[in-house]
Amino acid sequence: MQTYKIAGIITEMDVRYERLKKQAQPYIYNGNMKADISFALNDEAINKAKEFYPGLSEADLEYLLYGIWFYDKLLDFDGMMLHASAVATEKRAYLFTAFSGVGKSTHTAYWKELLDDAVIVNDDKPALRFVEDKLYVYGTPFSGKHDISVNSRFLLGGICFLERGDENFIENITAAEALPLILPQTTSRIGEDRISKKLSLIDRVLNYSKLYKMRCINDISAAKMSYEKMKVSMRVRLSQLFDVMEETLSKGGTVAFATNGRSMQPLLHDGDTVTVKRMEDYKKGDLILFRKKDGGFVIHRIIKKKKELIFTQGDSLFEIDEPIKKEDILGAVTEIIYPEKTIKATDSRYKLYKFLYVSSLGKSLRLLKRKLSKQKNHIG
After folding, report:
1. pLDDT 10s digits, 162-177
2. Which listed residue, 13, 166, 194, 195, has the most CB atoms within 10 A of its CB?
3. What is the pLDDT of residues 283-336, one digit of tens each?
4. DSSP state letters, 74-86
5. CA distance 210 to 114
6. In whole angstroms, what is the distance from residue 33 CA to residue 36 CA?
């Protein structure tokens, strides 16, 4: 028995044939940890498999059966297989899944051509696994006839369902829309007692992931489009960027970054992107980025101005922030970039939202909400 570490799982396999030995070699484990799972393929299993796959060699049958068993056991470790080609760049993995022949491997190869740091994680059956509430994509030895994979893991950037088309088009889709698309592309040879676990995990993956559907032609222009749509920038604390941001804004430039937190819901959710620009003056209702007394940064709305003092508040918060001065303000939000659309501060719909928020009606509604919340907490 040889010990391997596949998708973070210590795995024992009694591998006989050269194909799987070669593909599993990068996954050999020489540590002292006890195996999590163990497989031993016998002649009976090989002979039974020959009945279903009469055209396959024993080496190919061994590769196939160990893959089926591993991905079945993966369900017990919060993981699943997806029939996809996975490409990673900037520490994120992007999965392109489709029926055979659509061109998912060709598409990820174009990503490698476009991006210097791109690497194919697994070109056929990457493993997805939740570890400490984060979803990772792993290479595995079960990487198809071309054996393209790396023994590494990457955070998931997104999952894209590919179709062939006469033009390039990509759109975000919901988990409900993705469910019938993903079911044919994952583990199918499992017992009835495992189906519930499989469906539960698929639901968790879909509700965690950024999902896309893409119709495309088979050339590099499609890869350019999918990369621009799907790429995920790594988050950096604003305090780490303050010097650069302040210099850029002071010279009349703009900065864009992903937000973090819930204080501006329903307008801003965690991960939405905003563009900020310094202004000559800031008015009641403006959404501003400012530095707090403790050195932190926040995006809240101006609700009133009194002489040199500016009072702000988060749209979903009851309490007003400590007053600030104009010199504490880095800039105002000029646009909000959602996954499916962009809203500029000059748009009529946004102006209406801002007007209602700072109006007497908006203030009354917030006071009522605060009162009801206090009564609810008191009753509870």
Report:
1. 999 888 899 989 999 9
2. 13
3. 999 999 998 877 778 899 998 999 899 999 888 887 888 999 999 999 999 998
4. HGGGTEEEB-EEE
5. 22
6. 9
